[in-house]
Amino acid sequence: MKLLSILFALFILIGACSTSEQKSDINNSSGLIEIENGWVRPGNAGMMTAAYFTINNGTNFADTLISINTDLAVDTQIHESYESGDGLMGMREIGKVPIDANSSAELKPGGIHIMIIRASVDVIEGDSIDFNLYFSNLGELKIKLPVELPSN
C-alpha cells in the first residue's frame, strides 16, 4: 500500500512538472505574444466599425488568432479587404490570422482587420475598448484599445 502511495505521488509530481514546462514554452525567454499600435475607428451605435493592431509573436512557436470579442458589439469578426476582378474593393470574413514564430502580423485599414458589428453604444474618440483575443496556443489575451481617428 505504501509503495502504491509513493508511485501515485510520483506520478502527480511528474505531471505537474510537465504542465509547467509546457506553459513556460509559450512564455519563454524568447518573448511573448504582444499587441502594439492598436486603435479602434470611431463609429455610431448600431453601425459597424473596425479595430487594428500589430500582433508580435516573440515565441519560438507559431500561433493563430482564432477569434476576438468585446462586450461593445453584437459580433466581432476577423476580416480582410480585397480587390475584386472589376477593380472594386470588398470585405470578407477570414476567421483566423496565423502568426509564425518570431514574427508579426499587422491588422490595418485596407488589409486584415477586426470588424465590430452593431456597436451597442457610440464609439467615441478618446474612449478605450476592452477586447478578448483567443489564440490557438496562447489561449486568451485581454487588451484595451484606444478609439482614435485614422492618422492619415
Entry keywords:
152 residues; four-stranded antiparallel beta sheet; globular; alpha+beta
Order of helices and strands: HEEEEEEEEEE
The quaternary organization reads as single chain
Tally of alpha and pi helices: 1
The low-pLDDT segments are 1-30
Question: Compute the gyration radius: what is it?
Answer: 20 Å
Q: Termini distance?
A: 73 Å
Secondary-structure-based class equals: alpha+beta
Helicity, as a percent range: 10-25%
Shape: globular
What is the strand content? over 45%
Largest sheet, in brief, is: 6 strands, antiparallel
**Mean pLDDT level:** 83
Overall strand count: 10
Describe the 3D structure.
With 152 residues, this protein is of the alpha+beta class. It has 1 helix and 10 strands; from the N terminus they run H-E-E-E-E-E-E-E-E-E-E. It has one helix at 2-26, and strands at 33-40, 49-57, 63-69, 73-83, 89-93, 97-99, 103-107, 112-119, 128-135, 139-146. The strands form 2 sheets. Strands 1, 2, 4, 5, 7 and 8 form a 6-stranded antiparallel sheet that branches. The protein has a 4-stranded antiparallel sheet with strand order 6-3-9-10, with no helix packed on it. A hairpin with a 3-residue loop joins strand 9 and strand 10 (139-146). It is globular. It starts with a helix and ends in a 6-residue tail after the last strand.
